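Quick one: examine the sequence and fold tokens given here and explain what the tokens say about the fold. Here goes:
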Amino acid sequence: MDISLNSIGTIRSPYCDLVDMPVQPKGAKEVFATIEFDKEFKEGLKDLDGFSHVYLIYYFHKVKEPKLSVIPFNDMTQRPRGVFSTRTPMHPNSIGLSVVELVKVEDNIVTIKGVDILDGTPLLDIKPYIENFDKVEGEVKSGWMKSSLEEVSKKKSDDRFVQIKQG
């Protein structure tokens, strides 16, 4: 099956380098960014401003080589994990997902807050967070991930998924 996706806009954030940026939105809760939607999609933004949060679905455009086993940032054991049990960008299709706060919609520009995304990232889709649809009820398990909210909030990227140029 042939699948084709196209960018609908570009995420503009203060993170121009992958090194030392937050690895989850919880670590960037005060960081603002904008999404510049291609003009042809402006009509689709109608009524979005009534939502407090949105899902961003985007393409990790800097991933060069996917991996099936990785050592995740928040795994204190430093054990390799199957990529599908992680939130790493190294998945075979390099698709990212973030829930961010929606600040405002103005023309074809959407301002968001709580952003851990590299500047220039292509946006594939945006969907409203709807509590009655999306809130998980009952017992929630996080598998191997045992880091506290504070630990997750402080974690920054390192050279695990980024090739750092030597001096």
In short: The first strand starts at residue 9 and ends at 12.
